[in-house]
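Lab notebook: predicted structure, single chain.

Context: the supervisor wants predicted structures on file for every construct in the current expression panel, including those that have not yet been purified. This is the next one on the list. No modifications to the sequence; it matches the entry in the shared construct table.
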Amino acid sequence: MMKSWLVRFSVGLSFLFSTASAAASFPLEKVSWQQLPENLGVEKQLDAPEEKQALIKAINHSLRYLQKPSAKKAYADYPIERDRAIHSLQRFRELVRHSSTPEALAKAVKQEFAVYRSVGKDQQGTVHFTGYFEPVYQASRKRTEEYRYPIYRLPSHFEDWKSPHPTRKELVGVDGEGKNSPLQGLEIAWLRDRLEAFLIHVQGSAQLKLRDGTILSVGYAGKTDRPYTSIGAELVSDGILKREELSLPRLMEYFRQHPQQLDDYLPRNKSFVFFRETQGAPPTGTLNVPVTAERSIATDKSLMPPGALALIHTQFPKITDNGKLKTPVVSHYVLDQDTGSAIQGAGRVDIFMGTGKNAARRAGIIDWTGKLYYLLLKN
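Prediction complete. Output recorded below exactly as produced.
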């Protein structure tokens, strides 16, 4: 979920299932390109100039982060040197700019870069992919009978709260309306849909369309110390939904049909997120730089190199000209720029899919396995 972040309290299915894996202290293994599929690294999308521009923009965001003191600290005890990550991004950016075709780019990458594969959730490289997005929801600056479900700014003395922090139920009640909340006066806005208000906690940011037509953008400001509980996993555990049918659209459909169940399931996630108004700024990831649609991923930052260049090989949702979804297996260059409470272990990746309905539609179906590789200039 994004901390400052659009966090990766993630989305898509990442909030439905959270699986921690016992990864090694350094969960990347160097492999030879010859061991990997021949077409790995050939990203057909990069035929389009706008795709190159989006990738370069994401690279620039990572380079900005890597120059910060926080990056120096993050890499201090990491097996990969920060300077190597920086030089790798700089060189890759040049290759993206000047390669005439996706095939030429892949050829240059294989000549100049070493490849490190995530050990995955099984020490065999299997990685579970999900997607997240920035939603657009209806909201009001004032509480009304229609708009009853608040989101809150961070309390001024939050750092002084005693642990364990209050639960979600203690902060907003069983019904989520917060009528007797200790947070009264900290409301940013009220939503008319309770599940949407909850999903902002999952996504970590949102664009709120107010009743006068203006847009209020909010982003992650902090969270309580209570553990995150997946409501999707709870529904499966209770036998209400089957694991194989679970998706974000299916979850939303279930609660639309059984709204009374929200009183039971939402309080089970005791974790609670606070927000800040972002004045229209783009959604931001855990590195405190903007995340880019289809180019930013969230991983477990206790394990993976922040800001680094990566390559994913998995199914990827695309909308066809007739509005249908297809999910071809692709190679896709990404930047590791975010994290999330449901993203734990070397076998989890969350892909940021963008803002709005199409992004939600695509993010909501991502629930498959693939491979995650990091690319670094050869020593």
